[in-house]
Amino acid sequence: MHTSTRIAGAVAGIALTFGSLGAVSAPASADKPAACAQQQKHVDKAQEALTKVTAVFARQQAKVKKAKHEVKVDDTAAERADAKRDLAHLKAKRDHTKKVKTAQQQRLAKAQARLAECQADQPTS
Q1: Cα-flanking dihedrals φ and ψ of residue 119, to 5°?
Q2: Which residue in 31, 36, 97, 111 could disulfide with 42, CB within 3.0 to 4.6 Å?
Q3: Contact 121/35 with Cβ under 8 angstroms?
Q4: Tens of pLDDT along 80-98?
């Protein structure tokens, strides 16, 4: 039972392999992607990444604001010390995310410049 299943699978695989070799290939122009499609894909990807980083940055800004409030309202010195330590940690994370956001903005700007250059190089039909 197992042997016949394996043989049938092998025969089907060979038939598909040889069947695809004999298929008529499409013209080369049909396989060629649209002009500047790669650059547009990069711009879209950079824009999506910037949106995500911006959302993370906004959440971290809110956390820093909340931590600042916690420092003000804590009663004991130990609570204030913990709150200050947490605030410093949150500020460090926010600052790192701010640098990442700036870098992503630069990546997006460069991707948009490459797309604009590619579109300028294309002949208008």
Answers
A1: -70, -35
A2: 111
A3: no
A4: 999 999 999 999 999 999 9
- C-alpha atoms less than 13 angstroms from C-alpha of 56 in its C-beta half-sphere: 17
- How high does pLDDT run on average in the chain? 82
Encode burial over 12-25: b for 16+ CB neighbours within 10 A, e otherwise. Answer: eeeeeeeeeeeeee
Per-residue tokens: 64: 């820093």
The answer to whether 39 and 110 have CB atoms below 8 angstroms apart is no
Residue 83 and residue 67 in contact, taking contact as beta carbons nearer than 8 Å: yes
Query: Which tokens is 61 given?
Result: 């800004």
Percent of the chain surpassing pLDDT 70: 72
Could you tell me which residues come within 8 angstroms of residue 39 by beta carbon, excluding any fewer than 6 positions away? Answer: 111, 114, 115, 118
First CA to last CA across the chain, in angstroms?
A: 63
Q: Which of 3-7, 21-25, 106-110 tops mean pLDDT?
A: 106-110
Quote the tokens at residue 84.
């200050």
Cα separation, 96 vs 57, in Å, equals 9
